[in-house]
Specification:
The protein contains 17 helices and 19 strands. The chain is α+β, with helices and mostly antiparallel strands. The protein has four domains: about 10-165, Beta-Lactamase (2-Layer Sandwich), CATH 3.30.450.40; about 195-345, Beta-Lactamase (2-Layer Sandwich), CATH 3.30.450; about 365-465, PAS domain (Beta-Lactamase, 2-Layer Sandwich); about 470-549, no CATH class.
Length: about 550
């Protein structure tokens, strides 16, 4: 037996053969009709459409033969594709190329063979339309011509199939592009419309899984202190029951390089697993097999080049790697990373604002925020207590509503000067003015102003303290001082006498409390003391007063 040599264009021939996507497909009427017609015209019990693959010949259509394929080494058609025209073997048992061929010496005991190469428009022979018989014989000219015509029809059918495959692939690719664009839009919409990080992760997982037709997704976050990945959130389709797998996923943590999340964390790039149940680095494989999960892929959540988390997805189907999908999902991972950073910042700011508002509302002083036009933006409970306005009454009103008419013109001039020149005379100073309550009564106040900017906008904050009681106390003190000054003026002034204690008659120690009292009185009157009680006697006679002093 002589094995057929390989064609000089073998690799190109195989490439085109696979483009037709016909190998290992089911029987089709169009091909079977041509095969039967070839056998009928040539009067042979066996007719085949044979395609020569790298290691085998496979029969797209067959009449009179049971097997679906044979080894290429024993294929008559492997010789036929080397010919530019019809290959006819009258008696294989007498042909040295086939005399010991198992197809000749054993079942089906071929003797006669005629094969017309199936030549593509590129000039590549993919296989043959052939007829065979168990006895030696010949074909007449009409039969040979018919076999050639039928081979052209087979090629046309293959071309139609290839064009249909290309069309279907194009449609599929277009649908995939549309679906992935829709997915990108859907994820972007979730990121734009979701208020909290927890709500966003559920929607992101659900959106991606439903768009891809996958059953489950999980988000893992990096815990820097422990150097592990832990499950932050998880979503699964309602039609899919994977209680055991979800429980294990929520409880599991991964070190760098361990499991699908761990390898993505370490590599910083997407990873795909065709079948997790057969992957050596997938610790959850036994549970995945129990619940029927197979295909999986994961993408890193990147922020500034650092992996801050991993998102993984699972399918019940064995999934071949899809590089285009991985690239698109990798871009989404970076987008999600930016979103998570923004949401964390927003939540941190929100918490800070809540703490600030809590402090603001608990303050006894009035704290008021206003914009560059002098319009009130914020109003705490201290301001409500001092001025008498509820927050909903005063927010949006001008600051002039809180000041007597005599201050308003100067206030407006100050705002105009600040807007025009950026100069201010009152920021950073402690001012004593008068305020105007809701009931139109005036009261003294202490005001401290601050200025701050956000972008091109200017804002003011003012802390206001009602000093009515302090002013009243100061007035009372001044009255008492005047009364004391009047009393001291009436005290008889004696000069030249020693300071003798009125109780023990000893010279007083003027370095203690009474000396300070004398200094206080002397500073405020013209009186001079020469008599009094020494500190020792004062302790004995007036212990309560001494303790207070």
């Amino acid at each position: 037996m002589s094995k057929a040599p390989l064609p000089t264009d073998e690799e190109a021939r195989l490439h085109v053969l696979h483009q037709y996507e016909v190998l290992d497909t089911a029987p089709e009427k169009e091909f079977d009709d041509l095969t039967r017609l070839a056998g009928h015209i040539c009067g042979t019990p066996i007719a085949l459409i044979s395609l020569i693959d790298r290691e085998r010949q496979w029969f797209k259509s067959k009449v009179g033969l049971i097997v679906k394929e044979t080894s290429r080494d024993i294929a008559f058609c492997a010789h036929a594709i080397l010919q530019p025209d019809l290959l006819v073997v009258r008696d294989a048992s007498a042909d040295e190329r086939f005399v010991t061929n198992p197809l000749v010496t054993e079942d089906p005991h071929i003797r006669f063979y005629a094969g017309m190469p199936l030549v593509t428009p590129e000039g590549l022979a993919l296989g043959t339309l052939c007829v065979m018989d168990h006895v030696p014989r010949e074909l007449n000219l009409e039969q040979k011509a018919a076999l050639q015509t039928l081979s052209l029809q087979v090629v046309k059918q293959l071309e139609l199939r290839r064009q249909l495959a290309v069309l279907c692939r194009t449609i599929l690719e277009r649908k995939q592009v549309e679906r992935r664009l829709a997915l990108q839009y859907a994820v972007a919409r979730v990121l734009a419309e979701t208020a909290t990080l927890g709500e966003a992760t559920q929607k992101i997982l659900q959106t991606i899984c439903e768009s891809l037709g996958w059953e489950m997704g999980a988000i893992w976050t990096v815990e820097r202190n422990a150097n592990v990945l832990s499950c932050f959130d998880l979503w699964q389709a309602r039609t899919f029951n994977a209680v055991e797998f979800t429980a294990v996923t929520r409880e599991t943590t991964f070190r760098p390089g361990v499991g699908l999340p761990g390898r993505v964390w370490t590599g910083g790039k997407p990873a795909w697993i065709t079948d997790v149940t057969k992957d050596p680095n997938f610790p959850r494989a036994p549970i995945a097999a129990q619940v029927g999960l197979h295909g999986a892929f994961a993408i890193p959540i990147l922020l500034g080049g650092d992996v801050t988390g991993v998102i993984e997805f699972f399918s019940r189907e064995i999934q071949r790697p899809d590089e285009d999908l991985l690239q698109m999902m990798a871009a989404l991972g970076s987008q999600i990373g930016l979103f998570i950073e923004r949401k964390q910042a927003e939540e941190g700011l929100r918490e800070s604002e809540m703490r600030f508002r809590s402090v603001l509302q608990s303050a006894l002083d009035a704290v008021i925020l206003a914009d560059s036009r002098g319009i009130i933006m914020s109003w705490n409970k201290g301001a409500q207590r001092i001025f008498g306005y509820e927050e909903e009454e005063i927010v949006g009103q001008p600051l002039t509503a809180l000041m007597p008419a005599r201050y308003r013109e100067a206030h407006e001039q100050g705002l105009a000067r600040l807007r025009a020149t950026g100069e201010t005379r009152v920021i950073g100073r402690l001012l004593e003015l008068h305020g105007l309550r809701k009931d139109c009564s005036e009261f003294p106040l202490e005001l401290s102003l601050a200025l701050w900017k956000r972008g091109d906008e200017t804002f003011y904050s003012g802390i206001i303290r009602d000093i009515t009681e302090r002013k009243r106390a100061e007035e009372e003190r001044e009255k008492l001082i005047l009364q004391l000054q009047d009393a001291m003026a009436k005290i008889k002034v004696l000069r030249g006498l020693l300071p003798i204690c009125a109780s023990c008659k000893r010279i007083r120690d003027d370095t203690g409390y009474w000396k300070r009292l004398e200094d206080y009185i002397v500073d405020r009157s013209e009186a001079q003391f020469t008599h009094g009680i020494c500190s020792e006697c004062s302790r004995k006679l007036y212990p309560d007063i001494w303790e207070e002093a």
